[in-house]
Amino acid sequence: MTIQITISGLPRHQIKSGARRQSNHDHLTTSWLKKKLRLALPMTAARSGSWHIDLIADAAMTEIHQRTLGINTTTDVLTFDLRDHTTDRRFLELETLIGWEVACRQARQFHHPVAWEVLLYAIHSLLHVQGYDDRTPRQARRIHRREDQILLALGIGPVYAAGANAGLQTRLKGVGNTMVRT
């Protein structure tokens, strides 16, 4: 399984490619993210394929959100399932766009590292192509529960539920979590 992470139009001082201790709330290392995602993959049916993750700014995310779904706002994550007419969950051909500035705002609001927020969005995207959805309240509870189970197994703990448990019911309000089949 290959995982590629790119950074488009973002301040280089906030995202590093080298391995370093993840302690600063405003920093993320791509090596840390890849390591966590490699540990998360066996917790799903995914066994082979490729996963490209791009961290992008609000302006780019808004443009892509408008172009693909007709929604003229930024969002936290867009998932593009690039598999050719297969529903075999063991194979991934996944493109994930993560809104870096949304992740920074949410991390500040919920008082945890931005790396955890980005990891949450990546796992959310992965779960979408594994058959999870979030269009109804019941589906949303199911996907968020699974996200938090994976994050707990990774040693992070519940990230999505942390805001709800603190009485902050506005988590990601007005922000979409959308999968686009191509």
Structural write-up:
This protein is an alpha/beta fold and 182 residues long. It has a single domain (2-181), classed as 3-Layer(aba) Sandwich (Collagenase (Catalytic Domain)), CATH 3.40.390.30. It is 40% helix and 21% strand. It is built from 6 helices and 7 strands. The protein has helices at residues 30-40, 58-69, 100-110, 114-128, 137-153, 160-165, and strands spanning 2-8, 15-16, 28-29, 48-56, 77-81, 91-99, 177-181. A 5-stranded mixed beta sheet has the order 1-4-6-5-7, sandwiched between helices. Helix 1 runs parallel beside helix 4 (114-128), helix 3 crosses helix 4 (114-128) and helix 4 (114-128) packs across helix 5. It is globular and about 35 Å long.
How would you briefly describe this protein structure?
The chain is of the alpha/beta class and 182 residues long. The protein has six helices and seven strands. The chain has one domain (2-181): Metalloproteases ("zincins"), catalytic domain (Collagenase (Catalytic Domain), 3-Layer(aba) Sandwich), CATH 3.40.390.
Describe this protein with a few key phrases.
single chain, 182 residues, alpha/beta, Collagenase (Catalytic Domain), 5-stranded mixed β-sheet, two-stranded parallel sheet, 7 strands, globular
Poorly predicted ranges: 18-25, 166-177
Strand content: 15-25%
- CATH top level assignment: Alpha Beta
Count the domains: 1
CATH superfamily, called what? Metalloproteases ("zincins"), catalytic domain
Sheet with the most strands, sense and barrel status = 5 strands, mixed
- Please compute the radius of gyration using only Cα atoms: 15 Å
Q: What is the count of helical runs?
A: 6
CATH architecture level-2 label: 3-Layer(aba) Sandwich
